Amino acid sequence: MSLERFINQAVSSWMSEEGPDSDIVLSSRIRLARNFENFKFPTLFSHEEAQSIILKIEEILRESNFTKFGQMELLKIDDIQPLQKRVLVEKHLISPNLAEDSPYGAVLLTENEEVSIMINEEDHIRIQCLFPGLQLTEALEAANEVDDWLESHIHFGFDEKHGYLTSCPTNVGTGLRASVMMHLPGLMLTQQINRIIPAINQLGLVVRGIYGEGSEALGNIFQISNQITLGKSEEDICRDLKGVVSQLISQERSAREALRKTSNIQLEDRVFRSYGVLSNCRIIETKEAAKCLSDVRLGIDMGYIDHLPKNILNELMILTQPGFLQQYAGGHLRANERDIRRAALIRERLKMESDKR
């Protein structure tokens, strides 16, 4: 398979499209946790209960014509090959927990992959909407539409005082987890991020790496999300998060301008050295690739590089992950083989853009 065809088949809309403030905000995600009324949570439910939940979702799909976000397809986790599950995790369409620890799990995906509905993960249902750029309000509206559709067929566990009942107490209430993925190289290079993260945490938000809890902030990419779901409305949660993100956007742009004024030639040199590495390397590890891709994306945003698309970081940060590399190669690769394949894929992708000039 050619790289261009592979990319066209593999890249989700949040990776390939631009949205508001997409020079800094890569994506916005809304996730709603829901559970069937009078069913045990997935940590305790029986095989029969798990199967009945999946059968109910299949019944809803057959009888209800909800196509606003495109045709939906139900995939059972046990029917998906390990490598394919890893790819779905790398695309942020399912969680590592669903891929590895949910024998009765499934996922409902739309064609453009803006909407994914995880079934029998930590909760019976987790609705996720993933949009490019800063589009929390739009993602929330989409998630609520999916939620309304499901709730017209399912009685969810709900308490008048506490709200939606969830497996983890931290999700009780709205069941909402809102998050924004941001590229913050300016704040990292000026070392401002070290004082900003504790301040964000004090506001009831949490800062994580590219794949959420426990993951590293590779390529200067951070996820900012809410911690509190009880006692606030969905709109309040999104508004508060958007307010903090807007301040971060402003601070990141100021940091970039400060670097341009005080260290312009050094920054330009850093950008083109990283571009040279990516264009010519024959072997490259994940961390080095992420660092170089971040530098190149910064160079694109600041006008040093004008022949590459802005979404190159979004795309290659995903396509160079282990699952994708092996999917492209057509089978299992050892670590050193992945490093060689990663370098070749990046070189070929950059050449594709050069050939378009």
UniProtKB/TrEMBL annotation:
A motif (RDXXRA motif of the pArg binding pocket involved in allosteric regulation) lies at residues 338-343. The keyword ATP-binding applies. Its EC number is 2.7.14.1. Keywords: Allosteric enzyme, ATP-binding, Kinase, Nucleotide-binding, Transferase. Residues 24-255 form the Phosphagen kinase C-terminal domain. It catalyses: L-arginyl-[protein] + ATP = N(omega)-phospho-L-arginyl-[protein] + ADP + H(+). It comes from the Bacteria. ATP binds at residues 27-31, 92, 126, 177-181, 208-213. GO terms for biological process: phosphocreatine biosynthetic process. GO terms for molecular function: ATP binding; creatine kinase activity; protein arginine kinase activity. Belongs to the ATP:guanido phosphotransferase family. This is Protein-arginine kinase. It comes from Neobacillus niacini. The gene is mcsB.
